[in-house]
Amino acid sequence: MRLSDPPVRPRAAVIDITLVERAAPHITELGADLDRQLKREMRTTERLRLLREATNRITRTANDAVHAYRRARRALDAELQRTNADVEGVRRLGERLTAARTDVLRALEAANSRYPWADAGAPDEAASTGQDTAVQAEP
Q: Which of 1, 23, 48, 54 has the fewest CB atoms nearer than 10 Å to its CB?
């Protein structure tokens, strides 16, 4: 919790908001890690494997953020229903949650458009190796 945020009863909401806030930098970091790995690897099949692994990690991070967002939103809405609700505190936390959600969506969009060669190269490589052609570059 930030020092500027007044205490709000649903502590779990603050934890979930923090999880959503951390998701975008983590997704960006996974992309940077993948870039470093791809620079060292020239084999197309290995590059696609690295891309699939990074995509799976990005997807898990995004799914965790979605679930945390829903839990936090429900907790904040429930807090507003209380007769002695800290409306200003909930508003501030809601703003943090909305900003974090926007950041996650931006990070996902960047990750989704980062490797267009994977869509074009996957069917050719799969045909030459006999592998499944269902390689997806999007999280």
A: 1
